[in-house]
Here is the input.
Amino acid sequence: MPDTPTKTYDLLLRRRSTLIIAAVGAAVLGGGLTLVLWPWIKPLLSAQSTFSILLMVAGIGILLSAFAICTLAERKIAGFVQDRRGPNRVGFWGLFQPVADGLKFLLKEDFIPARADRPVFLLAPCIALVVSLLGFAIIPWAGEIHWPWMPAGHTVSTQVASINVGVLYLLATGSLSVYAVVLAGWASNNKYAHFGGLRATAQMLSYEVPLGLGLLCVLLACGTLRLEEIVQQQAASGVWNVFLHPLAFLLVLISTFAETNRTPFDLAEAEQELVGGFHTEYSSMKFAMFFIGEYTHMITASALMVALFFGGWAPLPFGGFLADSTAWGWALVKFGIYAGKVSLFIGFFMLIRWTIPRFRFDQLMRLAWKGLVPIGMAMVVGSGVLVALERERNVFWSLVVNVALLSAALGVARLSKQEITGRQANMPEIEVGPV
Amino acid sequence: MSENTQLLVFGLLALLVLALFAGIALLSEKPVETFVFYVFAGAMVLSSAAIVFSKNIVRSATWLLGTLGSAAGLFLLLSANYLAAIQLIVYAGGILILIVFGVMLTAKNPFLGFAARPRELLIAGVVGVVLFAGLVSVMFAGPWPQVPNATPSSEVAPVHAIGTALLTTYLVPFEIVSVLLLAVMIGAAYLARPEKR
Here is the structure.
């Protein structure tokens, strides 16, 4: 039998000792090189720019694996809520389901409709993925960190970039993500996709207003736009912002659901009405890119809310036991706390998806413009008054203002007798036929 | 030409342009900044030209996104982070509206193109030439003050300074603009209210 090159290769791979020798060799070579080059590597690793690049690379890897875990978690949670088992065929407890899904996405036919606008059709999933990865750059995962090899007193920040307009940057990148949906809907040359895209436009424009107002309340009180400073303030004063601004948190939470296109605000895809909405015509990896974008957006938005309202890496709501140390062990603990809070938020997002049904479009618009925007404006005025009186970090006065505003809003809603989610006045009566 | 060849040609062209930019940048004093400047400026010029020459209104709007995004990139390069973020936030919504209007105006056939009449071409050409001449004359006539090493400190909060300026020095223009916007909003609400039955 002739020994073909493939056969040799197969044999080499199959012989376990070859593999072990190769692995040990690579490890020894890598370790030796690192040891020899250590004097040159050390200053490089101490610089913020190198650390930022490493963080970027790690971040993309972490986000993509988080996406895989999220898809599994979403289906498991769906199974839990609907009292069934969820995926459990692939691997132990269905743990390899994401791998199977990923393979399926890669191997499916990559289809582009004949009458679609080809370049825009290809551009849309790229926008979805890129824009959602951008926001990751300013999340302060663990504050300042001091590695053992650094000169004393020298630290690097665990942010890719610390920019002075941090929250505005997140808003800007977040508002760009709607283009993916709109352009996908338009370029597909499909009526259902088209409707999905147009719905997404109106939804995004409307919910950006309450989102901005809610963020403004917190930013007014904090006096800075840098996320790491906001987290630092909460860790230092020991009071999470959610206790100072519960209403603002509610506004931001609701608007975030709308911004990330999650149920009950997923009118752009509404599978019962619009087949699949904007992604009807997408298949294979392009479809997956939309969903990587959506989950990444969700992770970034949760991280933003944790930083703004839930004290980032501060472990306890009222005064923490965590020493404000920059040692790398503590930084890992901080990162664990931050990531734990973010995953709690993501679990909440998923639980809501299987709990609350989708809004009708007019209900969606009315909730934003007649419900959230007026409350948000009143909240901004209230926060402004508190800041002017220098009571912005006082839990008692903040809560008084919040409760007063909430009761005023409820009173107005009761007096106007117009249910905020009911049927609009100018709509025809529903004709009830014989049951 | 098959699609793969087309993509290959595009990719090679882009690489060539990038290499050209890198060459120019290496000759200057600050190579990295110069390179990034040329990338953003090139993207801006390309997408601006594409806005004018594309015959489809939604594609024009998409190219506009490229132009405004590159402008934001140039602002970032000048350490004007706040301007860059505001550029994206404000114009992102604006272009979205433009796309919606484009879609609605071409509702009968979503891929309908523009067709300019000769007279319109003439008027547009004259306006364009006059504007361009004005810009060029200003470019050569006006003084271009150069401040060496004038890097704005990224530590000072620009939002604070801008907010203070808006509510003190420029209070009257600010208020006039807000009244104008209020009038526009009332008008829009009036037009959009439901018909009385």
